[in-house]
Amino acid sequence: MPARVHAILVVRPEGRTPAAHHLTRTLAAIAAQSRPVDALTIVLCGADPALTQLAASSGAEGVITASAGTPFAAATALATPRLTGDAVWLLAQDTAPEPDALVRLAGALELSPSLAVAAPKLVRWDEPEEIVSLGISLNRYGRTVELAAGEFDQGQHDGDADVLGADVRGLLIRRESWTALGGLDPALGGADEGVDLGVRARLAGDRVSLVPAARVAVAGDGVAAMARGRRRARRRAFAERTAQLHRRLAYAPAAAVPLHWLSLLPLALWRTIVHLVGKVPYRVLPEWGATILVMARVAAVARARRRIRAVRAVGWSRIAPLRVSRAEMRLRWEGDGAVVDAPVRSELQFFVGGGAWAVLGALAVSAALFFPLLAWPVLGGGALAPLRATVAQLWQDAAWGARPLGLDAIGPADPFSAIIAFIGTLSPGDPSRALVVLWVLALPLAVLGGWFAATRVTESPLLRIVAAVAWALAPTFLAALVEGRPAALLAHLLLPWLFYAASVAHRAWAPAGAASVLLVLVLACAPSLAPAAVVLWSAALVVVALVAGRGVARVVWLVVPSIVVFAPLVWTQVRTGNPWGLLADPGVPYAGDEVTADPLGRALLAAGFPSSDPGGWASVLNGPVWWVGLLIAPLAVLALLAVLTPRWVTASALLIIAAVGLATAFAAVGVSVSFDHGTPVPLWPGAGLSLAWLGVVGSAMVALDAGIGERVRVLRPIGALVTLVALVVAVGPALTASLDQAHPRSVLTNGPTSTLPAFVAAEGRGSTAIGTIVLDPRADGLRVDVVWGGSATVGGQSTVQATRTEARPADRDLAALAADLTTPSSDDVVSRLAERGIAFVLLKSAPAGENDVIRGARLAAATSLDQRDALDGVGTTSRGDLWRVTADVQPRQPLTDTQAHLRNLVTLGSLGVLLVALLLAVPTTASRRVARRTPRIVGPTPGGSR
């Protein structure tokens, strides 16, 4: 047995429990040892009167004071010069050994002269039957692996002896080994100190052994413990990764050190992706922080390598048998995965429950209703327009830079342009046909989204189908189909998926990542929903913080991608003094048959109809249509009755969603923030109505599921049938609008393939650098615009251009060019066109009902253009009279270096945050296992589960 044992006790006033409480028990445990310590040195890290008084009255051989931030390794180094004796016992304020712990540790050193380090069994402070740590090893990648942690102590590991290392708390080390090894490595950052000490002792030819009979209680709040708790997860991850990377450079062969050092940054990038996919995003910043720190501390790595060289007596093969093999790691993973709670979540039953049949039925109905569209190459009418001819041009329109409309217009693209680019990419050979296919598939896609959204509300297969059909029969959705509103259509298709993911976003990172991406898509299609999204997000954040207590970070993340993606557009609109322009509907500005702000219009709006022709009945009957709104009454009554059911909490939340959506629609009606050549274009109130319809349908399903349908089973199918029949009658004319060829009620048309003459479309098919100035004399003045490429497109529209309320320098230049072109006495304006990259001049055809004055202005403009020497008349086309610039047309002004850098920054920022969100959304085995232990539906249930 060692003649003298010198204990080093490091104390730091930190942790959740007052350090004095732990120190009192630890000092009492040291004094109660059956084999007393021969000397005790206390290192006080930080000034604390209570700890100072306890240390002074402890009878310690010496008390050393240090700064509050002194780590455990540095503190032991301060006490090393004062060591006297044959062995060093490392303790912390929260390390209370049992009375026979020291005698057993010292006995192990005495029995084995080759033993340098003896490690006790660490047990929980207040529950000594649970093992905290009993030996630590390394896997093949250098990561530490606890050999027995978190297990109930039944003596199952008491026969273990040789290990690679152990937790640093409670270690008893021979003094000569401690001195030769140089103590603990301070560059490890407080993690893996015992493992590193054991590795160096092994390389020196000594042994490290467990002494399970020596038990030490630890609380985990001391200076030698890793940070515990959810709030300190980042701190713990940083320390662990710092230690791992430092050891990798310290243990590697000399020739491999530079390669390891160079690989740290790529490895950090790869591990960032792994952390995001593994749903542990809190490890990302610690990963990069640890990588940068270790790369910068070259001197610390050099010192660690010198320590190893100074004592190394055997090869690295000596410690290989003590590592944890890949097979052992696999067994550990499989064992952890096998110990799970019984699944709570029921089967989805998409096929068995009739969901698939509902979607197929909707597809058959859609094919019957929209079969003429299948022969159309391009969908036109309403807010529809062609798409670019190539995928590259589609994504060019979606990027920050020169805009496809306007003279010298440079700025951010609407996020909606990226959605259009993605849809067009699905049909790379003919992007415009993708919109045709979307229109045909819209009805079954709506049923599919509605069915999955209903799975968060009810387990009943019947009610899921009813909710899906009711969602597809929403008046605002059918109005978007008939009026040719692609943005509104996509918003309605995306909203149920947003509800499906966002309703459980607080549970796990996978739905939170998916919901954050879906929120970007919904806001891109319907910016007017942004205030409603902020209100609902704030309410969810408060509820999760107060009720759930967990998942706040996931809820906060929901809006982060939207903030990043919309930041360039927000900055541009705010900088130009037009923040209200952020609410403008994206795409082609289109003022359809929307409801007005009069009492009848607001009544129709309250019933869920966004147009003055509710459900198309006004076109059919040519009479009063106020009664159509009454057909929505069964659904509304069921929604209101839901608050009287046992699931009133869920129903109330859904009704709040409905109220916020309805308020959004009422606030939007009659409001115009965008313009079509000076003509105000009102906001589409249907986006708010889609949100309200989501809440109403969901609440009605709660009523049928937990209310009358639960008490009297026969009322469930009756209530569902009455609701659906009323909805079908209410929207019947709109649903069949495309079938009435004699009196068409739909604005959808076959084409056009281009908004410009075919000659220009052919020239501009491969490039967006060819400009066409379009002149259109009207009663309100000369309308003028510049179109780049072969056509004005859906993805090429810009709300920044459509919402401007005052002329900008480029607008004044364009007005001057148009005035000079149509004035015979002006100077050589054609050369100015050529310098701007404009190759064609189009004088649009006269609209129907044009008066003689406007017709005269149009003829005068044509005469002036014919007299230009540098203009070559191409002829009269279906779009109007076309002239070609014969002068040397210069390429369109490229972006400056600053603008190019800004474009790259905006692109990388948007793609980066969306990539992070998508990686978070990728399901893993662990996330699916956790999901199976949570109910599919949300909110409290009558049984008490959530």
From TrEMBL:
Pfam short name (any one): Glyco_tranf_2_3
Keywords assigned: Membrane, Transmembrane, Transmembrane helix
InterPro entries membership: Glycosyltransf_2 (IPR050834), Nucleotide-diphossugar_trans (IPR029044)
Transmembrane segments: 355-379, 434-453, 465-482, 489-509, 515-548, 555-574, 625-644, 651-675, 687-706, 718-739, 905-926
UniProt name for this protein: Predicted glycosyltransferase
Species in which this protein is naturally found: Microbacterium testaceum (strain StLB037)
